[in-house]
Write a sequence for this structure.
């Protein structure tokens, strides 16, 4: 069920050093109905390790992916207009810059979710697409919309099968999936098999430099096994016969990068931004364990300030709730030790309402319950959506309610 990782997931070195010791966590997105709540009780170790050889960061172990993805609660991308808009710009960029004026283009995506990204490439850009998605419910959603999707994990064996049936692809894409992969070496072997010699592999994932620099602790979950930054990733890829030739830094998830990758000596010139970012990483100290001390201090500071407010509200017999039920919300609850203070959790997504949170079984409700249960204070556990949440719930503040902001700094919002 839980397997300790004893080698670097990139270079295979056994020199692993503890960079960040975090509380044990349950599966962060295991929000379940009452009759299944005990399935989310188990917690697993979560330590961030640094490779002493190449500088890669990774989790100390992994939970069986089947436990995580057998019914994945990730919101369908079609429900997020902002995400859908960003995907359109992204797909248009790939076509404009890397199609080399070829006809009958193909695009395959690993971790394709409900198929939103490649659906646009199929319907608007006239490409032949294929999704690979391990979650049964999400792959079904895609197939139901005529986005051909294989319900499986992408690896070298599956790549061979796909090439036999569908041929190689011009574009191979993974959006916020690379960090979740147990055997990244085999994944890349699969990419080499499935990608045409002049094809482009586009890898988008959260950027560990941004995680450290901006205290994005919600990224520390059992779903994320790899914490990528460019220098060790480029070294790994070159040893595999591939190379990053261009990079975009993007705001997704608080800070992400999009690496454009080709087979070694491919047709695309390596852009100056690649070496520029590697130099910035070196200057920032990415290959130093000590750089994580700032995250430890941030967690301690926010935790202390939260508990000062919670203690005061308890003395006044005031009710407290949380807003947001993402995977990162579980990370916040455990790191800040606030579960016992919460009456319930609010989420605007009907998909999650009526479920119970991982481990602590805190009920998830609609925002109407805020007034029904006379909540005084709400801690926002979806800090990247703070402005949208405040705007939707301005009546709460006008009626004397208090919001607590936990990122990028601690802040109490009231009228």
């Amino acid at each position: 069920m839980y397997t300790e990782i004893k080698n670097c997931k990139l270079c295979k070195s056994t020199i692993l050093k503890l960079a960040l010791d975090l509380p044990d966590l349950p599966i962060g997105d295991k929000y379940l109905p009452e009759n299944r709540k005990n399935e989310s009780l188990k917690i697993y170790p979560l330590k961030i390790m640094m490779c002493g050889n190449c500088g890669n960061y990774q989790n100390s172990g992994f939970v069986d992916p089947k436990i995580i993805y057998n019914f994945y609660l990730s919101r369908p991308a079609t429900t997020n207009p902002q995400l859908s808009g960003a995907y359109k710009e992204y797909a248009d960029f790939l076509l404009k810059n890397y199609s080399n004026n070829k006809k009958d283009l193909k695009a395959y995506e690993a971790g394709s979710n409900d198929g939103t990204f490649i659906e646009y490439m199929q319907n608007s850009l006239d490409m032949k697409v294929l999704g690979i998605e391990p979650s049964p419910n999400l792959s079904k959603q895609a197939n139901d919309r005529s986005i051909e999707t294989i319900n499986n994990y992408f690896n070298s064996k599956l790549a061979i099968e796909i090439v036999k049936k569908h041929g190689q692809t011009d574009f191979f894409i993974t959006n916020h999936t690379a960090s979740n992969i147990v055997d990244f070496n085999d994944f890349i072997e699969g990419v080499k098999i499935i990608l045409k010699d002049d094809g482009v592999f586009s890898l988008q994932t959260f950027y560990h430099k941004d995680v450290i620099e901006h205290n994005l602790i919600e990224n520390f979950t059992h779903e994320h096994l790899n914490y990528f930054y460019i220098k060790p990733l480029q070294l790994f890829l070159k040893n595999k016969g591939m190379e990053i030739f261009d990079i975009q830094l993007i705001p997704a998830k608080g800070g992400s990068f999009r690496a454009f990758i080709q087979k070694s000596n491919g047709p695309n010139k390596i852009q100056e931004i690649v070496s520029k970012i590697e130099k910035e990483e070196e200057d920032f100290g990415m290959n130093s364990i000590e750089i994580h001390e700032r995250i430890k201090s941030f967690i301690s500071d926010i935790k202390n300030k939260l508990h000062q407010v919670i203690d005061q509200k308890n003395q006044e017999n005031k009710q407290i709730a949380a807003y947001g039920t993402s995977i990162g919300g579980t990370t916040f609850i455990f790191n800040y030790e606030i579960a016992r203070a919460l009456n319930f959790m609010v989420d605007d997504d009907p998909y999650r309402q009526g479920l119970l949170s991982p481990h602590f079984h805190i009920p998830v409700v609609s925002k109407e319950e805020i007034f029904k249960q006379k909540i005084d204070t709400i801690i926002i556990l979806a800090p990247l959506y703070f402005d949208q949440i405040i705007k939707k719930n301005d009546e709460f503040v006008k009626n004397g309610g208090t919001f607590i902001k936990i990122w990028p700094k601690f802040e109490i919002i009231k009228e």
In short: The radius of gyration is 22 Å. DSSP finds 14 helices and 19 strands in the chain. The chain has a mean pLDDT of 94. The first strand starts at residue 2 and ends at 4.
